[in-house]
């Protein structure tokens, strides 16, 4: 896990208007323009928000994007004053559909979409048309292998098989046939669809397109959550 203080992370994210400074991709990592191999620091003036691809191109061994170029992107990020990407909502009350359950998000709202054994695994916040997405993914052994914090990719280990972001679809795989989480946005209907396989304390909570199935042959189907501050709170114990 990264040791970058959260206030520094937020400053770097806000500076880039919550997207990659180069392309606007909302799934980002924090890059040290001055590598910590040269100087141990968490100075936001020498850090930048980048998507995974541009982060790799800006690495000290990549010889792709120079530090001077990165400083220019810091001054003039892709998202100038308004986040403009495919997870940007036009309505004031976007509807999230998660495994057949509907969760209404209102402006300035924050909602726990899925909580298992007292821990929020999927959380969303929404303000001024901008969706901030947080998630925690564990493997079957109970190890935290991937984490998103307000769209920032802050953990990535060899236990995660792959991560892709293509336009209005975002996926993380546990392995080739095991999707950890998928998020898909339909701009025509202004709806966000999610599904995935969530492990917690060794148990599997499976979110299919139509329902949630968890140990004990328990199921949740077709619920609607509006103005309640939280959605699904499950127990696998």
Q: What descriptive keywords fit this protein?
A:
237 residues; mainly beta; 2 domains; 10-stranded mixed beta sheet; 6-stranded mixed beta sheet; 3 helices; HNH nuclease domain-containing protein; HNH_nuc; HNH; zinc ion binding
Report on the architecture of this protein:
There is one protein chain. By secondary structure, the protein is mainly beta. It has 2 domains: 6-75, no CATH class; 95-234, no CATH class. The chain is 11% helix and 44% strand. It has helices spanning 6-15, 52-57, 67-75; strands at residues 28-32, 47-51, 95-98, 101-104, 109-116, 119-127, 130-138, 144-149, 152-156, 162-166, 169-175, 178-186, 191-200, 203-207, 212-214, 218-220, 224-225, 230-234. The strands form 3 sheets. Strands 3, 4, 10, 11, 12, 13, 14, 15, 16 and 17 form a 10-stranded mixed beta sheet that branches. A 6-stranded mixed beta sheet has the order 9-8-7-6-5-18, with no helix packed on it. Strands 1-2 form a two-stranded antiparallel ribbon.
Indicate the topology.
Layout: H1 6-15, E1 28-32, E2 47-51, H2 52-57, H3 67-75, E3 95-98, E4 101-104, E5 109-116, E6 119-127, E7 130-138, E8 144-149, E9 152-156, E10 162-166, E11 169-175, E12 178-186, E13 191-200, E14 203-207, E15 212-214, E16 218-220, E17 224-225, E18 230-234
Parallel strand pairs: 3-13, 4-17, 5-18
Antiparallel strand pairs: 1-2, 3-4, 5-6, 6-7, 7-8, 8-9, 10-11, 11-12, 12-13, 13-14, 14-15, 15-16
GO molecular function: endonuclease activity; nucleic acid binding; zinc ion binding
Protein name: HNH nuclease domain-containing protein
Domain HNH nuclease: 7-56
């Amino acid at each position: 896990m990264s040791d970058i203080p959260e206030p520094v992370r937020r400053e770097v994210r806000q500076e880039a208007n919550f997207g990659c400074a180069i392309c606007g991709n909302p799934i980002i990592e924090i890059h040290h323009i001055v590598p910590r191999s040269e100087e141990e620091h968490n100075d936001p003036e020498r850090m930048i928000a980048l998507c995974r691809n541009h982060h790799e191109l800006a690495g000290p061994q990549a010889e792709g994007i120079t530090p001077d170029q990165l400083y220019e992107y810091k001054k003039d990020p892709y998202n100038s004053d308004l986040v403009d990407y495919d997870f940007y909502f036009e309505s004031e009350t976007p509807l999230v559909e998660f495994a057949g359950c509907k969760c209404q998000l209102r402006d300035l709202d924050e909602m726990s979409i899925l909580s298992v054994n007292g821990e929020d695994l999927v959380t969303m916040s929404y303000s001024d048309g901008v969706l901030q997405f947080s998630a925690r993914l564990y493997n079957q052994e109970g190890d935290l292998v991937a984490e998103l914090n307000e769209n920032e990719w802050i953990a990535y280990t060899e236990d995660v098989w792959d991560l892709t972001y293509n336009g209005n679809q975002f996926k993380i795989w546990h392995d080739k046939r095991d999707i950890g989480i998928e998020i898909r946005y339909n701009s025509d209907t202004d709806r966000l669809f999610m599904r995935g396989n969530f492990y917690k304390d060794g148990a599997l909570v499976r979110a299919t397109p139509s329902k949630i199935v968890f140990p004990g042959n328990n199921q949740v189907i077709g619920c609607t959550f509006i103005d309640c501050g939280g959605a699904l709170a499950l127990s696998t114990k």
